[in-house]
Amino acid sequence: MNGLPIARRPSDVRVVEVAAKSALNRVSHMGFRWSLNPYTGCAHQCVFCYARGTHAYRDLDGVREWGSALGVKVNIASVLRAELARPSWRPEEIAIGTATDPYQALEGRYRLMRGILAALRDARAPFHITTRSPLIVRDLDLLAACARRADVGVAVSIATLDEALAREIEPTVAPPRQRLRAVRALADAGIRVAVAVAPILPDITDAPDALAAVVLAAAGAGASHVWHGALNLGTVTRDAYFAFLSESRPQLVERYVRLFARGRYVEPAYVREVDDRIRAARRDVTFGRYRPPVRDRSGTQVPLL
Ligand code: SF4
């Protein structure tokens, strides 16, 4: 038990098909200009999910109902294709999966990502995908085709290699070992793939040897690099996360209150400490050497002789 309601049975989950008016969302103050999310909500129900706050836009409770109400943007591929065909479109990086996992279980049925990837391929649009799901390997063919025409990156999130702990904090996500196999498959298909060690949970996933194990496993699976991220406790996420802590690790509640005394972001001193741990973990590791495709002036990949 992690202290939060888990909607595991299909009958617990409401799925609503919606017609999206737009596919691309303008983003500011981030490292990318556009985001795209094929679903609203996410079935994975991670205790730390920063997207829980998005439930408020739908008058839903992001603590108790997260994972139990999912929206499927059934027309998103055709809307995206139309947006990418506009004369005003400039090829700026699109971040896919900023508020949902685009490869959550529903994607097995709806296959929205295949239409999205085909549209991105045809428009030569650069993008990166963040996911916790090995289902992404279903689309290796399209991802490889996209990577031949534009800059493409995938980040597979793995916060811990401890399977019991992963089940606790990411209750419906595939085990870390399966995610590493997906990293290997992506790397072997010539797709630049990173492991996102994120979010790092203070006193839960942040032990130096545990972080080093994830970094080492990522390199062993062919990742080109790792990146890490701190826990972000926005309003709704804070309530969910403290419910999890109170139930499973009450002894840590006071520590977290101190660490997050300034609001949603953790103390800078803690961030520096974790940065040092990841830096140390990277030091002795050799990552997979990703060689970006060479392209001609039209953007088409030139075969290396
Ligand atoms: S996979 Fe991502 S979007 Fe889905 S619940 Fe987990 S953190 Fe949130």
Can you offer a commentary on this structure?
The protein is of the alpha/beta class and 305 residues long. The protein has one domain: Aldolase class I (TIM Barrel). Helix content is 34%, strand content 16%. The protein has 10 helices and 12 strands. Strands 2-3-6-7-8-9-10 form a 7-stranded mixed sheet. The protein has a 3-stranded mixed sheet with strand order 1-5-4, with no helix packed on it. Strand 2 (25-26) and strand 3 (34-36) form a beta hairpin. The protein is globular, with a radius of gyration of 19 Å. The chain starts with 13 loop residues before the first strand and ends with a strand. The relative contact order is 0.13. It binds iron/sulfur cluster. Iron/sulfur cluster binds next to loops.
**Beta-strand content bin:** 15-25%
Gross geometry:
globular
Which consecutive residue ranges, at least 5 long each, have pLDDT under 50? 301-305
The CATH topology corresponds to TIM Barrel
- Would you identify the CATH architecture? Alpha-Beta Barrel
- Spell out the CATH superfamily: Aldolase class I
**CA-to-CA gap between the ends?**
55 Å
Q: Helix count, per DSSP?
A: 10
* Ligands and ions found: iron/sulfur cluster
Strand order of the largest sheet: 2-3-6-7-8-9-10
Q: What structural category arises from helix and sheet content?
A: alpha/beta
